Request: fold
Amino acid sequence: MATATDANLTEAQRRGALAHPDVELHEEVNRDILKMLSAPGKGWWFLFFLAASGVALMFGSWGWQIYRGIGVSGLSSPVGWGAYITTFVFWVGIAHSGTLISAILFLFRAPWRQSIYRMAEAMTVFGVMTAGLFPLIHVGRVWHAYWLIPYPNARYLWPNFRSPLVWDVFAVTTYFTVSSVFFYLGMIPDMAAARDKATGFRRKLYRFISMGWRGTDRQWHHFGKAYLFLAALATPLVLSVHSVVSWDFAMSIVPGWHATVFAPYFVAGAIFSGVAMVITLAVPIRKVFGLEAYLTTKHFDAMAKLVMLTSMIVFYAYLTEFFMAWYSGEPPEKQMFWNRLFGHYWWATWIMLLCNGLVPMMLWFKRVRHSIPALFAITIFINIGMWFERFVIIVTSLSHEFAPFAWGVYRPSLTEMGIVIGSFGWFSFWFLLFIRLLPPVAIAELKEVIPPQMRRKSGGHDGHDAVPATAPAGD
Reply:
């Protein structure tokens, strides 16, 4: 009997060592994660200043466009969609992947999820907040943007439900609501832990956010059921919502757009770009805050494998598009794809193919997957490639449609580029605030993967007193 017990403990130790080799006590988890909420250093303030400068650039450029009119952008016939809708689809893809990663990995009980899912969910919320700006920017006269919302009024006017902008309003608002609730619900136990360690205004803030959480069996039971329900709801919602975004293109009879591959192609691309963005964000956070014990090479290896899988799906979709254009025998379709490769925007297409198809192939090698600097560089290339993918889809098709007399070359203006660059500052602004106000790594779920014989309770001071090993799973 003693031998069997020792064997079980050894196996538990082995599993724990694979997940978090340097973490042994609950107190260590609280200490290491909650110290991230302390007073920021000079590095954080420097990044925050850059992000705030990007926000100022974006709103300054947008204000100039409102003052002078949409003509200051490069948008004109035949390219009515350009950098704005390109960036909108890019941020929607980034946003959709976060909750999808968290929800699917939770439903499949992936053991490496605990350290990354909070950052992925935060990325989702801030990505939707960024994407939601671009339909407003794109309409030009932003004071009329409320026309997109279906509300009853005196004249019984309703939006044109055949317009993709209306579809996007429904998609963004629905997804933002569910993602925000999912994100907030998962943070409640960790807010209780932060509440018990904080003082002053922060203590009041965390007390309000944690909603009286005490870690009782009853609270954990209801928490687990609610979290499971939202995870099950979010998974199909993400698939449907990003399919709606793809229908912005697939429902149009435009060469290169009118294809049934767009829905799965966009969903795979969202996961691809989202996981890459999670790695891009996790690497500097891991280094700056000393989280090597929580974000191990095991976690990065698992994320890199998911990037590699979705990269192959996306690259296969690229090849499928070219094959179907050739196989269709339609001259406008064939000419448009030939123009993608060798026309005015050949450079954008080859950047897309290089960054999204060839660069990720290096992840086949274990040495590359276990090299944090290499992963960081690869994911930067992927994020660049995914923006150019959306640019190629939108601009090359609109600039080279059926009639040759309507062909044109689109060149983004400085105003557009200021808004696009500023959107990254807007996203970074909120993410930097997040990592200083809320725990970016889940405390409660991290404690589940500590080997059982090493778990020690904290005497009721961290809000996780009654945490069973499977508490958040709703079991």
